[in-house]
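Extended Data, panel c. Modelled sequence:
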Amino acid sequence: MIEILQDNDDAGKQGAVKIAKALHDEFGGEPMIAKWDESLKKGFDPRDDDEALTETKKALNNATPYKPETETSNRKGYNLIPITEALRLDIQKPAMIIEDILNECCNTLLTATDNVGKSMMANQMACCIATGTDFLGYKVPKAHKVALVQHEMENGEQLDRLKQQSYRFLEMHPDLMAKNLLMHIIEDGENLLVIDQFDVIENTLKVDPDIEIMVFDNIGQSTNVSMTDPDAIRTELKRLKAICRKYSVAFLLVAHHNKIDYNSEMDLKKEHIQGGKPVTDWADNVIQLQTSSINPNLVLFKITKIRSVHDKDGITTKLANQVVRFNQDRDLLFTNRITIHNWEAHFKATDKYKREMDYLRELARRGEFTTLEAINESAMITPPVHESTIKGRWLPKFMKYGWIEKVKHGHYKVTDEMLKMLNDPTVLGT
């Protein structure tokens, strides 16, 4: 506990409040301000007489906690107006930056476990926003100015990635990329806890008020607040939202998932995100990613929270299970978003199900096949699979996951969806 002892005069009282405020703003808590006996003369100095020690002890014992002034202290009440008047106000809802993903003055979370590609997807989103290029089929109506701020990688690693990812955008929109895409270069000795340094964010926006989106990669590395402390997280994000409103800027925050056994969960849920409910409550939209077990070049893509719905199909359409292709060996970009139905199957361990994928490719080459042909085809994979395993386990499971479908009695085929994921390079590739 901190107690502040001041002279018993106006200057002393004001000085004590200033010190208490500085301590509160820096460390939180409630610093105590000593309270002198009201019978003492104004300007009493503890050094003035022999009873100084007694009066000092009394002042410290009567200390009161510092209470910061609130913004509401000078307000008369809510600004209430008749609904008929309110409906005539020309106040537009936030315009889309990326359809269903990011709006003006709103906040989006992009989350995944390690090594899924969330940082590269954030870079791609930034390039699309800067150039007005549609992102994975989601509309980007116009170009916006974007600032990329990352904390996980060295400058060289981030630049190397951006060189690959931005090539196509630079080729098609060189002027827009030069004007609208800004990258934060980390300086030697720089404090990287940017989200904690709200003055740094505000000063950046004051210097360049045309910035409309700031991308922080990632929230866990850019704050000194523990991601297991919900009250502290909530306080930080409230301050970030205040900046969002004050400067009409949108934030895209990259975040991590907790360690989850996806083989058991077999889904992407907001509860998987580090920081928990304070983080997901803060966000207007949430996107979650996970690598598919069926094909390492496929990434599961799911919007698990969305504030606004723009069409008659409603929110269920927006929250569909989807998959995208990650072009890891080419330009580090994501392409070819499609809706899928065999969602659970994508969470199984890759090594365990490699033989099943090889087997499905052999069946797909046949087109339509019978149970007997399916059994005979099992001899084509290594090591071969026993007849009872094919009939009793594999075929029923393939039906359950939507990998194959019944054409007629005793006749099957690999579903169109699975064909896209296994064999069709124009759609997803292998």
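The CA atoms of residues 318 and 358 lie 32 Å apart. This feature is highlighted in the accompanying rendering.
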